[in-house]
Amino acid sequence: MVMEPYNLAFCPALKELVEDGEVSTERIDDAVRRVLRLKYRLGLFEKPYWPRAEFPDFGSNEHEAVAKSAAAESITLLKNENTVLPLPSNARILVTGPNANSMRTLNGGWSYSWQGEKTEDFAQQYNTIYEALQNKFGTANVKYEPGVTYKMDGQYFEENTPEIQKAVTAASGVDYIVLCVGENSYCETPGNLDELTLSENQTNLALALQKTGKPVILVLNEGRPRLIREIEPGSAAVVQTYLPGNFGGDALSDILSGDINPSGKLPYTYPKYEQGLITYDHKPSQNIAGKMEGAYDYGAQTSVQYPFGFGLSYTTFTYSNMSVDNTDFTSDDIVKVSVDVTNSGEVEGKESVLLFSSDLVASLSPDVRRLRGFEKISLKPGETKTVTFDLKGEDLAYVNELGKWTIEEGEFMLQLGDQTTNINCTKTKVWETPNK
Questions:
Q1: Mean pLDDT for the chain?
Q2: N or C: more exposed end of the chain, with fewer CB within 10 A?
Q3: Burial of residue 312 (number of CB atoms within 10 Å: 0-12, 13-18, 19+)
Q4: Residue 288 — very low, low, confident or very high, per pLDDT cuts 50/70/90?
Q5: What string of DSSP letters covers 384-408?
Q6: Residue 286 scores a pLDDT above 60
Q7: Considering only 92-106, 136-150, 187-201, which range has the smallest mean pLDDT?
Q8: How far is the CA of 422 from the CAs of 283, 320, 392, 411, in angstroms?
Q9: Strands ordered across the beta sheet of 429-430
Q10: Angle between helices 10-19 and 25-41 (to 10 degrees)
Q11: What span, in angstroms and rounded, lies between the C-alpha atoms of 340 and 422?
Q12: Of 429, 412, 281, 405, whose CA–CA distance to 337 is shortest?
């Protein structure tokens, strides 16, 4: 199997390497055997092709509704200064930036084609961000001037000569600016980067538009976090769309208009600096004063743009009454952890309830915390729901210096929202098998 669709030189080159003894026939047999084994398990020898008629719902309205819902629930509101969002229905909007009118950037690589470069040819029936906002707020109220555009026929991250002043001039007659930045579609090696900084052209476009005094809603359309520390402070709102697919533009317009309340949470820590790349479950660090601090937290030594699990809503949620059914446990027990979540705002919304654990003392330096479970709930204004998790004691184990799963006597802290409680493991256990 060759996972590079445009390289036809691989097969004859591999054949020569085998004939020269550089690659053994046993290595080839092993690769072929694994491919054939999977095909056998999938039943492809008995039925290699599946008729389209056997999947009548493929691409149906129901499937498209699920695709739009998935995009809407993943899009994450990261900043909303002075509640600039949602926008009023009569808002006059400038849509700008290289990702504003592109289906290719909404889908990313491995969609329609390897690098995503053919998406525009096959996804014309769907709406870009610009087209979706026109449909939502009215054609007369939405204008488009990109300021920066990608070279669609060159390297994947090359940009044309910027026309920033055109975008600045277009902003004179609007109330809000929706600035769509990020990166062009890519995947694998052609998409490798030497740095995560947003392009100079896009940064300059953002800074110039912010000087107009119009509220700038920064829309991030990217497959990985591109650094925005220069332009984040001057943005009235920041929305992360990731790679939302064909219905990403429609889902975003529903969120910007308030027809949908955003409920996405960041699945990674968004860095502020390239040297600040860090996972949420890193090991703790110690500052000069001797206080243990973690890079995930707001007051940490390592500064991040936004932490893992962060995401705003148009309403507010209050956590209370966190409890566990058993504060002393062993690896064989299941601890029931519950918390009450209340919609303390004025509009209906969804909240992802995240259960974290922290091993407070261990033979090896433990992770700052680990995500152990999550559940998304919908709450009307004033409504309260109790969310309960079944936490297996063995799931709190870690891999020791001998490569064995281990859980040790001692305290663990559990966290749900701003609520915390401690539980105590009463018996050490080491698993002899790798999978516990």
A1: 92
A2: N
A3: buried
A4: very low
A5: EEEEEEEEEGGGG-EE-TTS-EEE-
A6: no
A7: 187-201
A8: 20, 15, 15, 7
A9: 398-399, 405-407, 429-430
A10: 130
A11: 17
A12: 412
3-state secondary structure of 313: coil
- Domains along the sequence of the chain with CATH: 10-49 (no CATH), 61-257 (3.40.50.1700), 317-430 (2.60.40.10)
Here the tokens at position 55 are 């999947």
- Name the residue among 254, 342, 277, 281 with its Cα closest to residue 75: 254
What's the pLDDT tens digit per position in 8-35? 888 899 999 999 999 999 999 999 999 9
Mean predicted confidence (pLDDT) in 54-82: 96
Residue 321 backbone dihedrals phi, psi, to 5 degrees: 55, 45
- Tokens 């009569």 correspond to 90
Amino acid at 141: N
Phi, psi of 220 (to 5 degrees): -95, 120
pLDDT band at 319 (very low <50, low <70, confident <90, very high): very high
Distance CA 85, CA 175 (A): 13
Check pLDDT > 70 for residue 292.
no
| Dihedral sign of CA atoms 296, 299, 304, 307 in order | positive
Q: Which H or E element spans position 62?
A: helix 61-74
Question: What DSSP line would sit under 102-123, residue for residue?
Answer: -HHHHH-SSBSBTTSTTHHHH-
Q: How far apart are CA 276 and CA 292, in angstroms?
A: 18
Residue 369 Rama label (left phi>0; alpha psi -120 to 50; beta): beta
